[in-house]
Design brief:
By secondary structure, the chain is mostly helical. The protein has 3 domains: 356 residues, no CATH class; 123 residues, no CATH class; 184 residues, no CATH class. The radius of gyration is 30 Å and the shape is elongated. It starts with 13 loop residues before the first helix and ends with a helix.
Length: 678
Amino acid sequence: MSESKSFPQSGALSSLLAILLACSALLTGPVHATSQEAGHEGHNHAPGAHGVETVTPGEERTEPWSKNVIDLFASLPVQHGGRIKPLDKLAALKLLTFNGKRTLELDDSGESKLKPTPWLLDCLFFPTQALDYPCFRVEYDAVLAAIGVRAKDKLDWYSYNDLAPGLSNLQREFEKALATEAADRTAVQRQTVNLTSDVRSFLGLVSSLEPLRQQFRTDGSARLREIFGREQSSLQQIISEADSLNRLANSLLDQQNEDFEALRSLFSQVDRSLEGSQGSVALIPPPSGGEDEGTWLTLPDLVRTAFQSDLDLQQQLGILATLERLEASKSSPEAFERELTQLHGAVVGLAEERGEYSMVPLEITLYKLDPFTNSLVFFMLAFVLLALGWLLPGNQWLLRGVWAAVIIGFSLSTVGIVMRCVIRSRPPVVSLYDTILFITTSMVLVSMLLEKLTRQRIALGVGAVLGIAGMFLAMRYELKEIESAGDTMASVVAVLDTNYYLAIHVTTITLGYAGGLLAGALAHVWILGQLFGYRAGDKAFYKSLTRMIYGIICFCLLFSIFGTIMGGVWANDSWGRFWGWDPKENGALLICIWGLLILHLRMGGYILDRGMAVMAVIGGMVVSASWWGVNLLNVGLHSYGFTSGVGLALMGMWGIEILVLGLCGLDVILRKTRGTPV
């Protein structure tokens, strides 16, 4: 590194100014943004401390974005959450996080709506307009009462401008919430933390391009006029002269003259323009040869790189110049589309050179296909057709329709899982969200196989119901996954990013979960069927149902034991010990023990058909405890799965199961009273 680039790496222009002023507090600026966005609890700054002052009042969009502009913008690659993804996916993630929905309703009637990509376009290019969009979902009016903002309703949506009067109070409540352990926070405190993070993230978006809207004085001294030759310069022009400015700064270290004051003023202008760009979009591929060659650049990152390295930034400065022209042409749809086409070609071309664009088109296809939502639709259709089939039991067309709907739903979910695997180059199960998709799809597949063997229409119906429940749960949990990890395909935590033993372990253990839950679902049919007299007296039907339950329990036990053993092999390879009595390990072991207990009791004649059904229902509760319950303890090496708000849902599910078991016991008592077989 040359002498002219020997400045500390603490900030972009701030570190240079600190040297110039001998660490003077006047100009040690806040240019320390990175490409990775802060988590909910990583910052204690006031939500409006950075960004709101730099959103220059400007024009508003007067006509809709064209389809070509939306498509070009949507397919731009961007780095977020540790990986490269299309910009429309980033828009969808951000809007879903803020809004709780992927579509922004601009009025109470819901007739005027914005999809994620046009919304993000407005945030970047028409921020004044975006500040009025009601994109923040506030679930508890108590949050607003605490910050002095008038609530519209108990649950409603608010714009940034609606919340602006209470931002200083929001910071105060945010700090109070941070003083409480995460597991002990109230629902209102959790909402306060999330809302603060959302506001900060939103400000990063609307301020991302703010430096491109400004011109900086570059005629403050003879030396600056010699470098720039103009009265004002853009950010790209200033960065292009980074070498000259660094040499000038070094020559002025022991002087405080006109050139010194002019340079200090210029750097202060640039620093202030970048203040609101923390957490902005990392849209610029980095140059080769840097220490962080895998990290894409935001505008502050680009400034830092230009002033603190000798890297060749010709391509990056070309992209920045195109961005400046894009911003300047936003009032002309034709010119804007022309500049956006050039920007798209430059960024995509550079990403392809780096080998980072290959999965972006596939992810765009995945997002457009939306396989899991569509699979839910087909599972619901299958259930409706099945219900009609109960009214018209001899209609084969309805049965064929059920089969077709279930197969299409299963195919869509399978395609979605495979596409996610290809995009991430990872096995199908990495996060808790993945387990929902994989377990649901596995249960539907096994249900179809069972139906093919038994032809009772029960397994197929159960598969449709489980498909509905699983995909609905996935949709409900998706937001929590995004809030905690930033994406449903985020980079995995270090403890999971290991070898192939893990892939075998998580896949087989979740197949065991699928088996346990499917057996429990079939057991519900047995118990409730007996209770309500469904096919009363048809012993063959209930014997067939019992054989199905028994077979699926064997399936569950096989994969649970193998998966638990492979988990130990992985733990020994990764952590140096086979077993550590971790809560998650204990949960997996409990499933194995419960399955073995059922089989021994059955083989020993201690339980018959009803007993098998009861034990299978309890087995489903054991599986849910291992799958979700132990994560709530937030201890052990597997505590990465902790998710707030799940405990109440889990308790509700267990309460329903206890009610079913209670009804089963009541049925036994009534049968004994009547003298009928139990």
